[in-house]
Please model this.
Amino acid sequence: MPWFRKLADMRRVLPINALYFARSGIEVILVMDEPSEEQAVLELLNFYPDIRWQVVVNDQPHDWRPPCCAINVGLRHAQGDYVLVMSPESACVTDVPAAALRTLLEYPQAIALGQVGFACFEELESHLYTNPHLYRDHAAYLQQAQELARQFDCAVPDIFRIASFYGSICAPKAAFEAVHGYDENFTVWGGDDDNLRVRMELAGYQNLFCPHMRLLHLEDRLRRGGEQYDADDIFRKCAISTAQANDASWGQDFARVALCSGPIKNTTGIDWESSIRKTVPFIEPAKAGSRRRCSVCGNHQHYAKAFSCRHCEAGILGSAPTAQWKPRIACLMQLHDEERDLPGCLDHLAGYVDGIIALDDGSTDATAAILAAHPAVVECLHNPASSTREWNEPENRRRLLQKAQDLGYDWVLTCDADQRFERLFLEQIHELAGCFEPGKQAVLSLSMRELWDDPLQYRVDGLWGSKQTGCFFSVPKGSIHLPGTKAFHGDWFTDVLHEGGKIHRARFHLYHLKMVDKASRLERRDFYQRLDPANRLQQAGYDYLTDEGPELQLERIAPERAYDIDTLSERYRALIND
Model:
């Protein structure tokens, strides 16, 4: 049990769990990740002499951090052949340790995953948990157990919900050792268990859902379990290809043992494994779908895939849907004075889309001539040049979408002159759209990668690592209307898609060159501040465009995720640092 200032909660939960912990062959390891409650914890444990305790303490005070390091310390100190990881504030609604062990005796190459619900103490009608000797009073204990079961049924619907299977993991100790435990590099909440599941799967262990392993997470305030859920962080933790995390020093962050009741030993003379087989009924678990994600498209093996991905089909995540038809795809571009970047952008799209429809928004340079000369451009709309240029992106976009509809295109891709799509996306663009039924309203949202200081690297810290853009979507039938009235920063796709379509959060990369160098970042910040001085169109403002600070993190573009750098203008190619 990883511990970080949980004394008040465990003082009330331990009387409920003690009956299941006070058994021959079980030790309970409390891994205290900071020392402030050590003395009080040791005094509390004196009330439970029937339980074999081991308390390991980190003598270095610090703020909260993910429990990965603490859990790994516990794994290193564990004496048994099997390890159950659970929270000190989780109450056993069923005999979780026995149910987990019974499952693993039948499936030795597996991981038993329990189900967790959330409740607060004040929701419990009976407060028998205030009695540390509750587990010795059979009638009182039964009353409390029935109350916990009622609360669990309220918290967890009587349907098979994948989201409720976390919070307890039981596996052979050898499985934890094979993957070097939990990843100690994580710095933010969430996804630790998912990451471990994926790595154990890669190491050859089967994840099993065990709905009879029931825990109720109890605190003073009510939680639902997803308050801090970050989809991008979870994706990164599950889009992995190697089983091991950490180096050989994992689980050695601290090691002082404040209490050890002694080695695990059988005091009853009864074989523990035989006893479990005889006394605990075996309930067949369900095989869990993989939490692993495709790092290219974002497909999740656990859920039905909406679209194809050659990376998935190569065996990374099993089979994926195949295209049933070949839609006609147009690329839409609105442009103003883009003569430097436009030729390369048109070249990087040509051959992948069926046509390019552009709108020249009053350019005074050679933009119009470049569009007229390029064979991939099938239609070019124009706004007249004006010294008092009016910015009206919604109308520009509406006209472009209307033209795509008039010309009979099925899907559209949107692109700016300073953007480049990764080849992996462009090479299968028709397959992706062809997985959706003709006429079905859908959007594929791609990861926007802001190139930074070098056209071959992008920024990933904070919001920079989570930017998405809905740039690939089906053309709606009927009138074209765009939601909202923003002059810029609005969505390309129509209100029909907003209201009745489905947005699929894909992970293909769209690279953005506009801020690759510092001077361009300053120019972009100042440009938007002039257009929107009161931050009406973007509440966060625009200073973040140039902020760096100690949090700055850059990631190199992997060769397999590359875009066509040969289509870059000389000014960008000069910034490449090999």
Q: What stands out?
A: The chain has 18 helices and 20 strands. The longest strand covers residues 206-219.
